[in-house]
Design brief:
Helix content is 37%, strand content 29%. The chain is of the alpha+beta class and 113 residues long. Strands 1, 2, 3, 4 and 5 form a five-stranded antiparallel sheet that branches. A hairpin with a 2-residue loop joins strand 1 and strand 2.
Length: 113
Amino acid sequence: MVYNVSLNIGFHGKTLNSYPVIFKTRSIRGISNTIRGELPQFAEFAFKTYSPISQIYLYVVISYGKKSEFFKYFSIKCKNIREYKKYLNKDFEELEELITIESRERKLNDLLK
């Protein structure tokens, strides 16, 4: 079964990104792995929009079925995700440095592929 997934980054019921992150996957584990892999970008986005890092949510819509007629809607509080917790207790300078380092590593990995 193919799952069509739409992710929005939110803060107190409002979305921060104007275009959702959309992807397809064949398993629920694929959704989890994609979210965990994209957490540095979500933290960077929240940081750049001056949103409180600890109050960021991911609003998820999953559609499935032969014609994508079934939908599941839910939200995930990012601070409850293990990989996101390293961003929570940082001050502005530490967070900026951590995000810069991870951004450089991501760009290097993309160039090496």
